[in-house]
Structures are given as structure tokens and as C-alpha cells.
Amino acid sequence: MKLPTKILENAVTEISKLPGIGKKTALRLSLYLLKKDLQFSKDISKAINDLKEKTTFCHVCHMICDEGKCYCQNESTSINRELLCVVEDTPDVLAIQNTNYYNGLFHVIGGLISPIDGIGPENLNIESLVKRIDKGEIKEIIFALSPTLDGDTTSFYISKKLSKYNLKITTISRGIPIGGEIEYADEITLGKSISSRINYNLEQ
Fold it and tell me: What is the span of the domain harbouring residue 166?
């Protein structure tokens, strides 16, 4: 891609390093920034710098947090501290929080066990999870991991690690999405929805 200036070329190159951003999109964004006033670019630059310099990962739950204590360590919040949801990464936490159906703690393990990719239990935040359970405050663990072979392997491994504790271990249901049609569901999803069936409530 030939560009009129070296500065524009550098901007396009750097912006295109973002996931999902190709050269053409990077060029459009660069030209958009060029048209905006200087303060607009300074605000974006400051937000990015603050993101890198002032955002940390909680040493307890491994969720991103601002400087200082994470919400999981704030005793004043109205969180059910006996309930702990195990997720793969930060976007999963945000997705579950946005449902407004969960009011417990989280633990981000940072990936899934995948021998093919060279990811073992020692590469994940599993030992810190065991330490949290060892304190005796958690009464139930909810696995909210991807319904894949790696996800199931990870859930199985963690459940074995926690088997010595007096702990309720559950997993999120898997089945037909709201608005979905039975005939278009794959066999595994349909089978899971049948085996994970719940009582029908007329008051729902």
C-alpha cells in the first residue's frame, strides 16, 4: 500500500497491529484521526497509556482492576462470597456480569488445559484457586468454561483437585439458545439440553 507520507504509513502500520484491523481499516482510522482536533488524539493516547500503566491483574482472582484493591477484596460490596465462578478469561467475567443473574465471586484461570498447544495446569491460575478454596469460605464452585474438549478437560482436572473439600461443584447448563429451533441444533447441543433438562415451571 503506497501512502503519501512516512508518518501516515507508520500510523497505519501500528494501528493494523490491533486484532481484526487490516491495512485498509487502519488507513481509514488514521485519516479519521487526522481530521479530528489534537485534543481528541491526546485523549485516546492518554486512555491507552493509562490502560497499560494503571491497570493491573488482581493477585487473588486474576481479574483486571485499577490501581489498588480489586472488588473481590472489598468486604463492603454486596457480593455472595460463598459462590465462586471459574472462567477462562476477562471477557467471560464481563459477559456473565452483564446478565445480572450472578452476584458471586470470580476466578480467571487464564486459559484452558490444551496438551496440543503445550498448555498444562501449571500454566494456568489453578493453584491460586485451590488456595482460595482452602480458606473455607467458598461453598460452591461454578464452572463457566467453554463447552469444548479443552474446557471439559480443564473442568475435570480442577474438580479432581478440589475433590477433598466439602464443596458443591456445578457447571453452567448447555442447550438450545433462546429463540433457537430444534431442527437446526447439532446433536451434541441437543443431547446436552436433554440430559440437563429442568423442571417446567408454570409461573416462569
Answer: 79-172
